[in-house]
Write a sequence for this structure.
């Protein structure tokens, strides 16, 4: 029987079968993740094949993972050479950020967007907690919106507290599987609770956590909005290590640099000190945002020191 993983809590998976019923499932025997070095062999969003245990009809055994179209992965916190799968087979990434309580860094936003570009996952940036923004932070939001919108990332300003901005976000969720990511405490679960008011129980649980960054959510979980729309709540990301991105392709994951591909004097230009570099020209002309170029350089140099 075919199924989709809705939740994973270590070695047990909650799987929704084709017929709509949920099973507690385990993986059969030892299961190696073919080409990925990851700490978890399966994640939310994985399509699997399973057999139902005739003795315990609510339990199933997974024996096949259908090849993934994409995945979001972060570096494992305890085994740094390994990744941890957050979600698979997704259509859209909703990156929830805040300019206050806690503040999301621009470097983090850019790293996250690069990993979305690498898998061609469209990304939406939701700036939450607008109720806490003063004039200066509102200006910062408007600046960032001007930076990211032309690159193809829709920016939305929300306040879950005031229920502002949801009317802009909701239409983007229909007909897709969306994963909601971001640092701990930015309001991911609060958003999921607004989308699914019937999960009121969960609201109760998290409403106590008035402080930031407590890592309230510990496992990713998927919810059905309707037949064709799914939303995945995920645990807060501390640090986003990038995987498998070579120096010479890094700029391809910056849409504004990708546009200039092949125009530099040297075909293997790294866009740092080379003469005749169109990317640097664009940075000087402010057609590439300085913050974006800074992110590019910091990732490039960080990769060098890791060698
Ligand atoms: N002022 C304000 N607080 C908010 C807003 N949205 C969420 N919060 C609060 O922020 C805190 C953290 O929210 P959560 O939804 O638990 O955050 P999370 O992103 O799920 O965090 P993790 O599960 O730890 O990754 C809670 O106290 C929320 O009530 C908002 O728009 N404005
Ligand atoms: Mg949460
Ligand atoms: Zn160049």
């Amino acid at each position: 029987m075919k199924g989709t993983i809705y939740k994973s809590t270590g070695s047990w998976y909650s799987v929704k079968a084709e017929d709509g019923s949920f099973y507690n499932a385990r993986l059969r025997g030892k299961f190696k993740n073919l080409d990925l070095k990851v700490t978890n062999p399966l994640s939310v969003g994985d399509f699997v094949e399973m057999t139902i245990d005739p003795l315990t009809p609510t339990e199933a055994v997974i024996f096949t993972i259908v090849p993934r179209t994409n995945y979001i992965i972060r570096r494992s916190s305890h085994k740094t050479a390994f990744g941890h799968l957050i979600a698979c087979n997704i259509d859209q990434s909703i990156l929830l950020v805040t300019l206050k309580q806690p503040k999301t860094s621009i470097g983090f936003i850019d790293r996250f967007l690069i990993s979305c570009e690498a898998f061609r996952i469209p990304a939406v940036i939701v700036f939450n907690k607008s109720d806490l923004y003063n004039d200066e932070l509102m200006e910062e939001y408007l600046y960032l919106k001007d930076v990211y919108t032309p690159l193809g990332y829709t920016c939305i300003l929300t306040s879950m507290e005031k229920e502002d901005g949801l009317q802009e976000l909701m239409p983007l969720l229909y007909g897709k599987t969306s994963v909601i990511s971001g640092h701990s405490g930015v309001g991911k679960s609060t958003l999921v609770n607004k989308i699914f008011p019937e999960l009121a129980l969960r609201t109760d649980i998290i409403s106590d956590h008035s402080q930031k960054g407590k890592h309230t959510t510990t496992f990713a979980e998927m919810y059905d909005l309707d037949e064709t729309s799914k939303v995945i709540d995920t645990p807060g990301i501390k640090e986003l290590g990038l995987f498998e991105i070579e120096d010479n392709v890094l700029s391809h994951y910056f849409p504004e640099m990708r546009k200039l591909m092949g125009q530099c004097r040297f075909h293997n230009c790294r866009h740092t000190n080379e003469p005749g570099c169109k990317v640097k020209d664009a940075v000087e002309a402010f057609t590439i945002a300085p913050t974006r170029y800074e992110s590019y350089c910091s990732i490039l140099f960080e990769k060098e020191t890791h060698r």
Remarks:
- The longest helix spans residues 290-305.
- The two ends are 45 Å apart (CA to CA).
